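This is your field. Have a critical look at both lines of this record:
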Amino acid sequence: MASFQYRAYDASGQFAQGSLEAVSEDAASEALWAQGLTPFQLESREPTAKPWWQREVFGGRRALRSDLAAFTTELATFIGAEIALDDALRLLSDQATSTAMGELAAQLRKDVLNGATLSDAMQKRPHIFSADYISVVRAGEIGGTLGQVFEELAGLLERRLEVHSKVQSALVYPAILIGLSSISLAIIVGVLVPSIAPVFAGGGRPLPATIQFFLALQARWVEALIGLIATLALGAGTVSVALRRPGLRMLIDRSKLEAPVLAGFLLAQETARFARTLGTLLRAGVPLLRAATTACDVVVNRHVAAGIARAIGQLQEGASLHRALASETTLPAVALRMIAVGEEAGKLDRMLLAVASKFEQQTQRSIDRFMTALTPLLTMTIALLVGGLIMVVMNAILSVNELAGR
């Protein structure tokens, strides 16, 4: 809604002025005529522009996962309570805890009041709403089950957010460990090593090669830092250019699925992602072919996605889903068997969600095992680095003491 300042005459010729809210200037004019007023001046009152830091930092275009999940959950609650869509969006705009989500709800409400469907309004914002999200909403609009599909979407986003949060939480301790060890190494190299250099000079002995290296590094740390940054930038640029070649990316993704340990983890992750999205879309009433096409877009590994795309081609020719996937993809056999059972029982959506839950749990167990092994490995590696530096310094000090004793 926009706010308009008006000046008008009523039926008796009396002057009147005030403000009103309307979708557009034409709608405001019609509202005034309906009240028996003849407007002669109608001006839009634009809200005060926000500071740049508030627009860019707090009102960024890309929505956070947590914000989008909260937006979907609240919208599902309002629609489930049989609140009209425009009123639900207005409530979201007024009560949003995030500035970005409040603005998003207001923009969606404006489009809906202008005659657009909610899915069409969301489709204008692909940086926020993914293809599978929009497909589910459109299916709910067509089938009249918008409240149900938003509940399904809320569950899907909450599950994705939960997996993402678990991975982040698992990386907290290794990150702290690496940070503290880096500080320790910096103190040894920047403070302890330079402090013992004068002792060698006074004793008339040459500096050990390791001490000389660290002193040179300290003296030319700016050049070393610039060289490191340039090397990393060059490497990142080379990798970025190389990955833009579809053939090379396909080769890399295929090689990932052939790695002894990584293959099982990646395949379970992609299976869970595909099954969760497809099951959610089917439960929302999206046709199988369209749902499978949308779910294929969610798959990250291009080799797996290419196999699913070929399987979708077989679906168009009348093949069953599990047979098409079995012939064109390397998805786990247990997932294919569960999909076959779901097709035979007419409960494909439920079975796909069960497949997703199974492989999400398997993925989480793999992450937990990896982090359990990574923590002691990092501890040992850092202990060897710090201990090695300390041994070098101690040997240097002991050699000076021996010289003084003689």
Remarks:
- The first helix runs from residue 25 to 34.
- Residues 251 and 303 are 8 Å apart (CA to CA).
